[in-house]
Amino acid sequence: MKKRVLSGIQPTGSPHIGNYLGALKSWARIQYDYDSIYCIVDLHAITAYQDPLELRNKIEELAGMLLAIGIDPAHSALVVQSSVPEHAELAWMLTCVTPVGWLERMTQYKAKSEAQESIGDGLLQYPVLMAADILLYQAAIVPVGEDQTQHLELARDIAQRFNSLYGETFVMPATHLPTVGARIMGLDDPEKKMSKSTSGAAHAISLLDPPNVIRKKIMRATTDSEPGVNFENPGAGVRNLLTIFQAFNEWSDDRMKDHFTGMRYGDLKKQVADAVVNALTPIQQRYHEIRQEAGYIERVLEEGAKRVGPLARATVHTAKKAMGLFTAD
Ligand code: TYM
């Protein structure tokens, strides 16, 4: 039997090249080697207020984008989290075995809660729901970007704690990071992770940005005052541009060094922009085709929920029995 892969992405903002290089590209690549489930995590999205109409649209747009980057519904289940109620049901059971202290230590929680006056409970529970997404399908492998590694450690801690309290129930999930591109930084500020929620004219490159916008953003990217590329000690901005190029074009470290050493930043930027435009153009074309096919995305999402439903119900049944909750048999 093939091992199971699971991952998720929030339907907020516009998916960007950080999401693509950190996670989505791996999703498409490994789907044929594993039994894959990819979730649009709308229940995670509502941990911050979302305009309802906009959220509903974003879910469909994101599904279209995942299909456009190559998620093949004949192989992978594409699922909207809220269409499988067992995600929330298992999350509650896991909440009850999770010490609050573990959640308060999460760096994403700390960063997000510091920026707000009143903190919704959902923000604290966020990684428990994420653990439920993973454990619900007994996933062995979780392809993510580097910013999710702490949440995955927590998912393992929760699984271990449940297993030791109630008997072996959950498979231990392993983190899968890409070798290049696990953490793409903002173009305007290479000390900060590229993020869907950070605004700013040249912070992120959306997967749907037209070529002229991509070029403009890259030409404006922050670099440093060196005359050209120096691999010994590149500044954060230059390192980020090199990483973006390398991740899109899949060049070896040696080839990168041979090609770019000493290159002036203007030329580097032009080549990075070409690499991004070349990679995104066919994705954008497929995206627009997919959006034009009436009813297609809804069908894929319905089919995905149908496929994973029995798996989700089986795990919840096992977990309920293990805990002594009421089940029919
Ligand atoms: P989200 O929606 O923030 O991001 C989706 C994926 O993109 C990766 N990513 C990045 N990778 C490299 N560089 C960046 N700048 C960058 N920004 C984002 C993320 O690491 C992620 O893999 N909590 C998750 C969603 C989630 C999930 C799950 C993931 C919910 N349940 C279960 C895995 C398994 C999140 O907010 O991802």
Structural commentary:
With 329 residues, the chain is mainly alpha-helical. It folds into two domains: 4-177 and 295-323, Rossmann fold, CATH 3.40.50; 211-290, Orthogonal Bundle (Tyrosyl-Transfer RNA Synthetase). It is 54% helix and 7% strand. The protein has helices at 17-30, 42-45, 52-68, 86-95, 100-104, 107-114, 121-136, 149-166, 211-219, 236-249, 253-260, 265-292, 296-323; strands at residues 4-9, 35-40, 77-80, 141-143, 174-176. It has a three-stranded parallel sheet with strand order 1-2-3, with helices on both faces. Strands 4-5 form a two-stranded parallel sheet. β4, α8 (149-166) and β5 (174-176) form a beta-alpha-beta unit. α7 crosses α8 (149-166) and α10 (236-249) crosses α12. The longest helix is centred in the last third of the chain and has 28 residues, at 265-292. It is globular and about 70 Å long. Tryptophanyl-5'AMP binds at residues 6-10, 18-19, 21-23, 41, 44, 130, 133-134, 142, 144-145, 147-148, 182-184, 193-194. Tryptophanyl-5'AMP is lined by residues 6-10, 18-19, 21-23, 41, 44, 130, 133-134, 142, 144-145, 147-148, 182-184, 193-194.
Order of helices and strands: EHEHHEHHHHEHEHHHHH
End-to-end Cα distance = 27 Å
Main beta-sheet strand count, sense and barrel state = 3 strands, parallel
The CATH superfamily of the largest domain is HUPs
User: What is the total domain count?
Assistant: 2
CATH first level of the largest domain: which class? Alpha Beta
What order do the helices and strands come in, and which of them pair?
Layout: E1 4-9, H1 17-30, E2 35-40, H2 42-45, H3 52-68, E3 77-80, H4 86-95, H5 100-104, H6 107-114, H7 121-136, E4 141-143, H8 149-166, E5 174-176, H9 211-219, H10 236-249, H11 253-260, H12 265-292, H13 296-323
Helix pairs in contact: 3-12, 4-7, 4-13, 7-8, 9-12, 10-12
